[in-house]
Amino acid sequence: MTRRWRRSPAFILLTTLVGVLLVTLALAVPAGAAATSFPSVSVLDSDFVTDPTGQNTSLQHNIPNLWVVVDGQFQDANFKDHYINTGGSDRWGLPASEVFEEESGALTQY
Questions:
Q1: Helical segments of 2-110, H only
Q2: H/E element holding 108?
Q3: Which one of 1, 10, 68, 69 counts the least CB within 10 Å of its CB?
Q4: What is the pLDDT of residues 60-91, one digit of tens each?
């Protein structure tokens, strides 16, 4: 039994389009990335902080000042300014993470 439909131009076009769609969807959101409730986030300023002793290479993170859209309004999320103005590494230690959305609508940095 021959399967001529597998060689038809319509079938080839359809399978090609499905393949392109699957690749596009796979590239649209990086693996492990979660959706965010912030439609827009801009970095205004950032410091890259590392362990000055060089002993802990996992403590290499940015402390940014961000501009985010919340409910259609632009808001400041000044992690860097708050960190510096309230004692910096003497009070807070070194950042252990990047800024991320821990709960919907709440940016956090450890």
A1: 9-28, 79-85, 88-92
A2: strand 106-108
A3: 1
A4: 999 999 999 988 889 999 999 999 999 999 99
Q: 54: which DSSP letter?
A: S
Task: Tokens for 72, please give them.
Answer: 């259609």
The CA angle 60-88-47, to the nearest 5 degrees, is 45
Task: Compute the distance between CA of residue 31 and CA of residue 35 in angstroms, rounded to an integer.
Answer: 11
**Overall pTM surpassing 0.85 (yes/no):** no
- CB crowding 86-107: b at 16 or more within 10 Å, else e: eeeeeeeebbeeebebeeeeeb
